[in-house]
Amino acid sequence: MVNKKINLDLIGLNDNAFALMRAFSKQAKRENWNSKEIDEVLNKCKSGDYNHLLNTLMDYWEVL
User: Fold this and answer.
1) Closest of 23, 27, 19 to residue 50, by C-alpha
2) How far apart are CA 17 and CA 31, in angstroms?
3) What span, in angstroms and rounded, lies between the C-alpha atoms of 10 and 49?
4) What CA–CA distances, in Å, run from 43 to 9, 39, 46?
5) Report field, pTM of the whole predicted structure over 0.70
6) Contact assessment for residue 2 and residue 57, using Cβ atoms and an 8 Å cutoff
7) Cystine design at 19: which of 12, 14, 61, 63 (Cβ 3.0–4.6 Å)?
8) Are 25 and 44 in contact (CB under 8 A)?
């Protein structure tokens, strides 16, 4: 289980689910997360509805 967070600026981000997951993935890569960690979070995001996706992402990012 991933136990860390990324720093992400949400200003100007589209609220589309794919855009949010793409933003998370790009920032996680910049912060040296490995593929397994990123995939774990993204798979968890995809395991429910849009609200589940948002709640999951909020568990893994600090909003700037």
Assistant:
1) 19
2) 21
3) 20
4) 22, 6, 5
5) yes
6) no
7) 14
8) no
Q: Which two tokens stand for residue 37?
A: 């960690």
Q: Which ranges of the chain have pLDDT less than 70?
A: 64
pLDDT at 47: 98
Give SS3 for 14: coil
The kind and range of the H/E element at 61 are strand 61-63
Q: Tell me the HSE value of 13 on the side-chain side, using a 13 A CA sphere.
A: 18
Residues for the chain: how many in total?
64
CA 38 distance to own-chain centroid: 8
Which residue matches tokens 């968890």? 44
Query: Is 50 within 8 Å of 38 (Cβ atoms)?
Result: no
The two structure tokens encoding residue 30: 């910049």
